[in-house]
Amino acid sequence: MTSQRERRAWAALASVVEPGTPGIRRAVAEHGPDAVLAALRDGRWEGSAGSALRRRALGADGASVLERTSRAGLRFSCPGDDDWPAGLGTLDVVDPKDQIGGGPLGLWVSGAVDLAELVERSVAVVGARAATAYGTQVAADLSAGLGDRGWTVVSGGAYGIDAAAHRGVLAVGSPTVAVLACGADVAYPRGNAGLISRARADGAVVAELPPGSHPTRMRFLARNRLIAALTTGTVVVEAAARSGALSTLRWAHHLGRYGMAVPGPVTSALSAGTHQALRGETELVTGVGDVLDLVGSLGIDAATAPRGPDRPWDGLPPARLAVLEALPARGLRTVEDMARRSGVGESDVRVELVELELVGLAEAAPAGWRLGQLARAARSADRRAARAAVEAADGGTPSAGA
Amino acid sequence: MTSQRERRAWAALASVVEPGTPGIRRAVAEHGPDAVLAALRDGRWEGSAGSALRRRALGADGASVLERTSRAGLRFSCPGDDDWPAGLGTLDVVDPKDQIGGGPLGLWVSGAVDLAELVERSVAVVGARAATAYGTQVAADLSAGLGDRGWTVVSGGAYGIDAAAHRGVLAVGSPTVAVLACGADVAYPRGNAGLISRARADGAVVAELPPGSHPTRMRFLARNRLIAALTTGTVVVEAAARSGALSTLRWAHHLGRYGMAVPGPVTSALSAGTHQALRGETELVTGVGDVLDLVGSLGIDAATAPRGPDRPWDGLPPARLAVLEALPARGLRTVEDMARRSGVGESDVRVELVELELVGLAEAAPAGWRLGQLARAARSADRRAARAAVEAADGGTPSAGA
To answer: Which structural domain range is residue A354 located in?
Structure first.
């Protein structure tokens, strides 16, 4: 648990440092928030932005930031808190294109939920503001499908695809998280104020900026990294060739999450960005089934299925199961990548892979590892059963909300 | 050159053996057409279809088949002829799904062209019969673009995507090849009779069946393998989940050609098959630029570009250049695959790769080879220049037909 003194230091730092500047975050990880705040105030912090940042640091008072936070109906969460989402811990990377990165120094949250719990099973659905009718329909259907199956949909609260994604999941009574590039108390864009209030009531609104902050281009880009980091995977529904949504996808790839895109007509400029992404490492998805085939982990998604008594991974120790879940059914994955995805250290990943290989659950290839034949067969059987169960439920009693 | 006696034997065999039965083709490769025809007639050929096939072989007379061929306004081409397309030599494979394969025993051709020359720079554009307006527009535009750039478009003469592909390339005054699943003198489907006549006049109509033959399901599937074998790559524009067009794509992959598909709305059942293919090894293409990026070989497609004097592959010996052209810019390719694509033997491919690696034109990875940094950079520069030249031409004087 974070001490009150530390919390004030985090809040002061988070209120003066622009989102996505990785150097300070790294220094905090090494020396603690108090020491870094003191260094900023004393002018011992190096860098061209030093003096403006120093003035802001001298003016910042953690206690009053926290007081303003409560007055705005928000709460402040920082690394070390119980509801701090684990996925944010993977953000110690810098995007080579936008030159932003690093984990947040704190999050302002609105909504009566445990944020960590809310995003544990979550998918980001993002895309163009100037979306087409096709894009908004696909985004809303996909989000509704994810909500129906117990997944939280995370998006950016913007017009177009983001709004359709929030609406789609709220419509089936499942929670959504809007991650904003301004204060969590600011309704931006104003036209989505009603939708953002509903996200607050039925999920959460999250921001990396103190109450009252306004968005900037860099803040949008920094916000995109949070959307990718909070979720198991990011689906881009429509994106023009240079759309900001593609930066969220890039972050998903940086962080070892699933990067997915929905194709569209090649005659539509709003699918040019998604098609470009699909020619790279992004996975093509056409609906909720494809998304869950990727993000659904072995154990969790098979939970709804009537299962046979002897799945080959029953009773595996947790680290081995985590490594097994990080193995791809298609293509190959490196040990480094699996370590990132599973949260298991690289050398332990190697040990577990050898154990899994011995029992036919993993297969080695020159360029990486994949699921073994035994696991692929069992997983397919589980998924077919899970789908059959969902379809049966859809046709019979209404499926339960989250 | 094939002797008259051999030609009669090929014609007799081709007129009695169903397309896509690989055993007889293999026996002919080993023992020659005369010997196999004699074996069939003497009842020495084993197999369940033996007796019906024997009766047909006994009734077949090569001379009269060739006479009927001329009377129908066709000519008969067989392995060994100068205009026999080299790509057909790669067909000694059996498709595990449809259980068909093997090269043709002969082709009936209509059209005053050298077939081998006509398909030397060719791309197949195929797809659903019940195509949407979107699909037919994309197919026609793509084919027109290919024709404009000097590529022959090969398709199956069917309704829908095939017809749009033929029409698109004919409209820009470039040749097309219709490969039919019936006799080359039969206009099937009847509604495309006019289009098939135009293909005959401005390109060629090709069939693996003697004049007057009618199509069957198996003949359609066997025909698909010819479309893939005749071309550098196959583009599927629209295909439902179990569309026959997907078998053409599968054949392109079997034969080491480029297998490409155009995405579409995920809400369209006619894009379900293409999206499924795109989740596998099929390449996503959105237009003629993407197709040429794949099928265009280094030297040829850069020919239209204003080029600097010192491209790194200038002056390479032909075999080395062929291997260089078979190297992928993205992903990896095995030596075996490159041998198939380049027509250079595997051991020579290995020798040339080492030479190319020494000068930075090839790079080795554990699972295969790719273009070296130097070649990638030069090729990108060439393509940008080529595209700029095409765009300038499009905006200025009308671009020349083939």
So the answer is: 301-395
